[in-house]
Amino acid sequence: MNINTLDLNLLKAFDAMYRERHVGRAGESIGLAQPSMSNALNRLRVRFEDPLFQRGPGGMEPTSRAEELAPKVQGVLSIVSEMLEQTEFDPKHAQGHITVAASDLAILRLAPAMVTYYSVHAPNLGLRFVPMNKADLVEQLDSETVTLAIGTFGQLPARFHRRTIMPDSFVCIARRDHPLTRDGLTLEPFLKARHALMTLNNDKTGSVDKALKRLGKSRQVVLTCAQFALLPDIVAQSDLIATVPTSLIPVARRAGCDVFPTPLDLPKWESEMVWTQKTAHEPLGRYIVDSFTEMSRSAELDLGNEFPGGDII
């Protein structure tokens, strides 16, 4: 028998006949009129080269060949049914690890909230935060080495999904009682100060320097650092001033820094979350994306409480 020519509806007819032992009732149970059910039974007999069901005192009784086939047919139908059935996703029973590529700033902002959230809603899911490597990001997403990426991105292949999360802007931080910030932080003392700069490119030029250049001015950068999270402690123990994302305010305050509005206009930006088509179409993947989106909004609201009414210091 060639499986490519087998109609699976015949297996449904066989199973109905085996259960009902009556052509009419069997057909009714699967939505077939009696003539159609009789036709299906005849086709089954030809396929399996056996009468399969014969009249007896208890109705249409199965032959020994039908008895042999019955559990196998039921198994096939059960497998097909499971394949087609949409099971309800329950995060409490979800297992595995979520690997997130992100900057140290995004990790600082999201990791505490995500750990707490998953401990309640998805206790068997583990979180792995790894450093962002934009050069390899496309390959990491395609190979499923990374589940989500969070950061700022330019052009990405159209096959990826992306969502804007966590708007951010700049503020300035300095140690408490810094001699240049006693009356706030205006442009003149800002230009006199020695500065720390977070940069991944091992240079001394950032958004602040580009904005100052447009004004025909410059600043003195005496320290560069490749991680945002280290800057507040460095600034708190020195006379340096750093211009950092607003989302670093809680860390800066814990380190002992004062926070000031920037004395010049600087760009704002929004972080994005990026994931694959496969993640988008899996129940677990959709849950991960939605939960990170929800927690990023909570982090944004919590951050807003850090400086109510615009009073940053």
Quick structural summary:
43% of the residues lie in helices and 22% in strands. The chain has 313 residues and is of the alpha/beta class.
Model description:
There is one protein chain. The chain has 313 residues and is of the alpha/beta class. Helix content is 43%, strand content 22%. It contains 12 helices and 12 strands. Helix 8 links the parallel strand 8 and strand 9. Helix 1 crosses helix 2 (23-29) and helix 5 crosses helix 12. The longest helix has 22 residues, at 283-304. The termini are far apart.
State the end-to-end distance: 81 Å
Shape: rod-shaped
Low-confidence spans: pLDDT under 50, at least 5 residues? 305-313
Please summarize the sheet with the most strands: 5 strands, mixed
Total beta strand runs: 12
| Cα Rg | 33 Å
Question: Number of helical segments?
Answer: 12
Q: What percentage of the residues does DSSP assign to strands (E)?
A: 15-25%
The secondary structure category is: alpha/beta
Question: What's the topology here?
Answer:
Blueprint: H1 8-20, H2 23-29, H3 34-48, E1 53-56, E2 59-62, H4 64-84, E3 96-102, H5 104-121, E4 125-131, H6 137-142, E5 148-151, E6 161-168, E7 170-175, H7 187-192, E8 194-198, H8 207-214, E9 220-225, H9 231-236, E10 240-245, H10 249-255, E11 257-260, E12 269-275, H11 277-281, H12 283-304
Parallel strand pairs: 3-4, 3-5, 8-9, 8-10
Antiparallel strand pairs: 1-2, 5-12, 6-12, 7-10, 7-11
Helix pairs in contact: 1-2, 1-3, 1-4, 2-3, 5-12
